[in-house]
Every structure is written in structure tokens, then in C-alpha cells.
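Try this one yourself first.
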């Protein structure tokens, strides 16, 4: 006899966020471990989508995203297993929203034409990132090391500064432009990738999140898309024309 069970409580997708009945539907502990006053305080403190997700069990980004942001066929068309970086390169580090994983990626001109995008490291937690960046910087002399200070990676900037790492900031409108440019580059088959599982999962599973009059890749969903956002901001950055750097590797992987 099975001893496992799965229970889910959530309000209907069209529930009013201020409706106490919806609160009760999604929170069986209401009136026992949590009060209406507490939920009302949350309602005023959180953005509507955040409140819907965290308190009502409604995931607006999943409701709006009827399909993936990027078509799998377009990503497959960008596959180039023998591609390497030929010339300038940048390093990018990213952190998942829950801070359980971190990514270091590289981007540069592909030996096959177009832009080479590659995940160098994708490992649990964040304590390893700065020391690994130092190793890669000293061996490969990248044109720049990049991060989005407004995102989860911003939490590592103080450690970078203490270790003498200069980090270029890609933030605000830059990040929005990076997402739009990445979509165009993939659908026009201008990127080159070497079929890495973590990057493929991030790209083909990513959804959009509306931000103002445009959209960005949604980092708040169930899927960790840090590999995608890392190479997206790297690709956008080199499009601005960073200085020269030399890349030497047997097959495009930055390994020591």
C-alpha cells in the first residue's frame, strides 16, 4: 500500500486577488497558522503576479505562455559541434533566482561564422564562481567579464571587487535589448552552439515575461534559464565591439 500522496491547493486562474474566499481555497491553514491580516499585508507589499504565485498558487507567466519563447527547430539549426571561438571573447557569470546554481559562459566570434555561445561551468551554489573567474581571466585574458547587477548575479559583485575582478555591467534596457537580440539571433540562425544539454534545456524551455512594452526571458519560472541569459547578455555585449583577445582551445571549451 502506497504511503505517498500529493495534494495541491490553489485558487482559480481568474480569482480576484482581494477575495478572501480565494485566499481560503489556496491556503488551508488560513485562520490556523496564517491570518487574513497577514495575507492582506502581503497583498499590498507584493506585485500582483508575485502575490498570485506565492499566495494563491496561480502562475501568470505559465497562463500567458502557451508556447516556448524559442522554437526547438531554430535552436537545432544553430548547432555547430565543431565551432570554436575565433578571436575576441567575453566571460559572463549568472546565478539562478533561487541561488542554487551558478553559470559561467563564454561568447565570441565563431570559427564557423556567426556568434559562438558556450557554457563553461554550470555547478551548484555560488561559492566557486569568483575563484574560477580568476583562473579563466589569468589564462585566457578575456576582453571583458560581464554580469547583470540587477539580477541574482549582483550578489557576487562585492566578492569580485575584493578579488580585483573588473566586471562590466549589463542592466536595465541593456538586458531587455539582450533578450530581444538573442531571440533574433537564434531565429535567424546566427548563433553557433555545441549541443550542451544545460544550454539547450534553458533555450528550448524559456518563456517570455512582459516588461513594459517589450518582453524579456522569464527567470522566475520553474526552469533555471541562467545558461540562456548568460550567453544572451554576452552576445549582446560583443555586438558593441569589445577590444581584442586571443582564445586558444582544442575544441572551444575553456578548460584549464
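Now uncover the answer:
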Amino acid at each position: 500500500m502506497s504511503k505517498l500522496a500529493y495534494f495541491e491547493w490553489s485558487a482559480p486562474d481568474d480569482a480576484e486577488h482581494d477575495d478572501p474566499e480565494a485566499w481560503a481555497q489556496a491556503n488551508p491553514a488560513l485562520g490556523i497558522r496564517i491570518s487574513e491580516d497577514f495575507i492582506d499585508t502581503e497583498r499590498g507589499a507584493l506585485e500582483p503576479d508575485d502575490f498570485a504565485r506565492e499566495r494563491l498558487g496561480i502562475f501568470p507567466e505559465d497562463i500567458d505562455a502557451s508556447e516556448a519563447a524559442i522554437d526547438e527547430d531554430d535552436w537545432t539549426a544553430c548547432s555547430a559541434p565543431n565551432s570554436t571561438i575565433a578571436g575576441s571573447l567575453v566571460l559572463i557569470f549568472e546565478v539562478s533566482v533561487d541561488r542554487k546554481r551558478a553559470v559561467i559562459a563564454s561568447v565570441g566570434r565563431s570559427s564557423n561564422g556567426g556568434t559562438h555561445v558556450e557554457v563553461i561551468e554550470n555547478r551548484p551554489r555560488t561559492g566557486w564562481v569568483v575563484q574560477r573567474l580568476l583562473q579563466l581571466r589569468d589564462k585566457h585574458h578575456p576582453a571583458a567579464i560581464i554580469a547583470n547587477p540587477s539580477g541574482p548575479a549582483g550578489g557576487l559583485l562585492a566578492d569580485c571587487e575584493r578579488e580585483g575582478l573588473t566586471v562590466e555591467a549589463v542592466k536595465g534596457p541593456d538586458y531587455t535589448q539582450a533578450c530581444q537580440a538573442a531571440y533574433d539571433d537564434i531565429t535567424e540562425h546566427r548563433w553557433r552552439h555545441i549541443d550542451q544539454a544545460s544550454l539547450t534545456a534553458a533555450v528550448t524551455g524559456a518563456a517570455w515575461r512582459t516588461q513594459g512594452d517589450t518582453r524579456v526571458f522569464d527567470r522566475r519560472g520553474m526552469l533555471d534559464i541562467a545558461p540562456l541569459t548568460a550567453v544572451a547578455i554576452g552576445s549582446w555585449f560583443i555586438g558593441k565591439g569589445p577590444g581584442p583577445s586571443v582564445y586558444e582551445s582544442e575544441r572551444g571549451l575553456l578548460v584549464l
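Discussion: The CA atoms of residues 39 and 55 lie 8 Å apart. Residues 62-66, 242-256 have pLDDT under 50 and may be disordered.
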